[in-house]
Write the structure tokens for this entry.
Amino acid sequence: MSLSSKTAVVTGSTSGIGLAIARALAKEGANVVLNGFGSADAIEKERAAIEREFGVKAIHSAADMSKPDEIAAMIKLAETTFGSVDVLVNNAGIQFVAPVEDFPVEKWDQIIAINLSSAFHAIRAAVPGMKTRGWGRIINTASAHSLVASPFKSAYVAAKHGIAGLTKTVALEVATKGITVNCISPGYVWTPLVEKQIPDTMKARGLTKEQVINDVLLEAQPTKQFVTVDQVAALAVFLCSDAASQMTGANLSMDGGWTAE
Ligand code: NAD
């Protein structure tokens, strides 16, 4: 399976899951559009590494996923630079935790914009080209929180349930056009974000590293192991393959059994 001559846009790909997906798609031969925040040096290092390691072209768009016009411009940039957007991975996301009555209104608006509406805006801009070419893969990074809730995460859980609904709706609309639309729903994924929380939690709760991992972070995850970014990326690559052409509208869990309970 090869994605050479295809172009992938991966939102929120300067870190974590998005970066792993962008690298995995590049390994399959796709030119990639990276997107997300970070230091210019670190982003340039990742961009250049993708070109060097995989022999593809990579560019970075600094589009803010809370801004519809910047999202449309990012898709346009990909189309004018590489000629198409064949794979769209809507992955950018943020989190905020607070009881619903104290949840800051601006945080609610920001999470709905970045974690949900950005996918609508990117899909809306990318689908016409995919229809014209008769091929497309849209992959949304949802979460176990697209299927179940946790307290104090009202905006995140609402946005992720929304992504699951958007995935199904668009899948039906483009089903006869050679375009598949799926979401991946990871449980806890080992990203720098998660790793950095461990020392503070050890200190705050007087726990060992193992106790923090098993009893705090992975309390909901029966395997008591993190999902890795490379495992999520491998599923994204599979969804781009011909073997997955009849998979559409699916919400694919990769959560160590979390949502089986
Ligand atoms: P991360 O913090 O490592 O990466 C988030 C990426 O989104 C970064 O590249 C960041 O720059 C980008 N981003 C944030 N706000 C943005 C904005 N306004 N515009 C453009 N880019 C923006 O996080 P991650 O753990 O890799 O999460 C990626 C996705 O996976 C998110 O949608 C998250 O909800 C989902 N997810 C993560 C986990 C987990 O345990 N890490 C579990 C389930 C789902």
